Amino acid sequence: MKIILRQDYDNLGNAGDILEVKNGFARNFLIPNGFAWEANDSNVKHFQDIRKQQGRKLEKQLDEAKKLAGDLSGVSIDIIVKTGEEDRLFGSVTTQDIHNALVEKGYSNLDKRKIHLPEAIKSLGTFEADVKLHSNVIAKVKVNVKKEGAEEETVSEEVTSETESTAAETAE
Question: What structural domains and CATH numbers belong to the chain?
């Protein structure tokens, strides 16, 4: 009996293959369990239509992933962490931290399980994280790990220098 496999089946074939199997195997196991259809003209045509729809859907998903990868490649996120002596982090920066920063930037449709760090981030600096958007599309995001209070120090230095220059001008 000729059948069309609806899904991959070990030792038999892949989805969409048209195979010749024994009648009992097809009628008693493959067809009732939903692994296959009988390979008549209407089922072959129906399966070809389904494959075309799936192909268009996969192309659309790939295009969307490539567009999102283009957007993400220019993104740089800042993660503020607490540090101890010699600027060592308490713990490490996780994929959840990166995901939260990306959500704040407006990328809420990303899955945190798709974010991959080549190595654990346990120090200050700039790192790259990979975001797998599709089986063939990976975007790289820059992650800047900064010390908590570092922005406050630079702001206070600017304010102090402005105050000193204003005081010098009034003194003259």
Answer: 1-44 (3.40.5.10), 69-149 (3.10.430.100)
Residues 6 or more apart whose Cβ sits within 8 Å of residue 79: 93, 97, 98, 101, 143, 144, 145, 146
User: For residue range 133-160, what is the model confidence (pLDDT) as tens digits?
Assistant: 888 889 999 999 998 876 555 444 554 4
- Which segments within 113-168 are labelled E, that is strand? 115-116, 121-123, 125-134, 137-147
Cα 74 to Cα 77: distance, rounded to the nearest angstrom? 10
Distance of alpha carbon 27 from the chain centroid: 42
Please, what's the largest Cα pairwise distance for the chain?
A: 105
Q: How far apart are CA 113 and CA 132, in angstroms?
A: 9
Which residue matches tokens 């982090």?
89
Question: Token pair of 168, please?
Answer: 């010098």
Q: Which among 91, 43, 98, 46 has a CA at the least distance from the CA of 76?
A: 98
Q: Report the alpha-carbon distance of residue 8 to residue 167 in Å, rounded.
A: 79
How long, in residues, is the chain? 172
Q: Quick: pLDDT tens for 81-125.
A: 888 887 788 888 889 999 999 999 888 888 889 999 988 888 889
DSSP state of 7: S
With beta carbons less than 8 A apart as the criterion, state whether 137 and 69 touch.
yes
